[in-house]
Amino acid sequence: MEKVVKINNCYFEYSKNQGKYVLSNINWEIYQGEIWGVIGENGAGKSTLIKLICGLLYPSSGDIYLFEKLFLEKYRSELLNDISFLSDTPCIYEHLSVYEYLNVFRKALGLPIENISSVLSIVKLESESNIKTNVLSMGLKQRLNIARAMLNNPKLIILDEPTNGLDPFSIINLSNTSLRIKQRF
After folding, report:
1. What is the mean pLDDT of residues 57-85?
2. 0.70 exceeded by the pTM?
3. Could you give the angle at which helices 114-122 and 168-183 cross, rounded to 10 degrees?
């Protein structure tokens, strides 16, 4: 099984040489097909860790490997093509239908049109494809954004606080969606 993420002895501080580490001595390996959750108090460094994995920040010390390559600037574009990130506050173009919304991203990424029906099927939104996104519930919007994150068939999907604002039924739906995604790997 391919190692998707390897974090080796990472430290991170926002102000250099202050010695106030947000993250210290992080060692972690994630393999293809695994589902992980990072749990901690507000300010514990969860989002910072995600930003490090996505290459939005670089560690103060230590190494991060994605798909068994050291995450360096020269590999940045290549590595980021295999990652999708969904922030904790995703933006939706609410004047578009579900299908039109996904099609904007599909075109921008130069992907085949078939990818839209594929991801709609995985997140169980086929029957909502012609509905305007502004009338979707919070749970359906989250599933739509997961579909968007899956359009390019990434090897790694990172969701930052995916259950934020969801009711218990939508959280269960999100868990089931995660399991369907896992089956693809």
Report:
1. 86
2. yes
3. 130
**Residues counted in the chain:** 185
C-alpha pair distances (Å), 41 with each of 38, 45, 46, 47, 120: 10, 9, 9, 11, 33
Answer for the pair 20, 85: CB distance below 8 angstroms, yes or no: no
Q: Which of 40, 55, 56, 61 lies closest to 5, judged by CA?
A: 55
Same domain, 112 and 179: yes
Which residue range forms the structural domain that includes residue 27? 3-80
Q: What's the rounded Cα separation, in Å, for the pair 123 and 146?
A: 7
Answer yes or no: do 102 and 142 share one domain.
yes
Give me the DSSP letters along 4-32: EEEEEEEEE-SSTTS---SEEEEEEEEET
Backbone φ and ψ of 67, nearest 5°: 50, 40
On whether residue 91 sits in a domain, the answer given is: no
Cα 108–114–120 angle (5° rounding)?
90
Give the pLDDT confidence of 101-154 residue by residue, as tens digits: 999 999 999 999 999 999 999 889 999 999 999 999 888 998 899 999 999 989
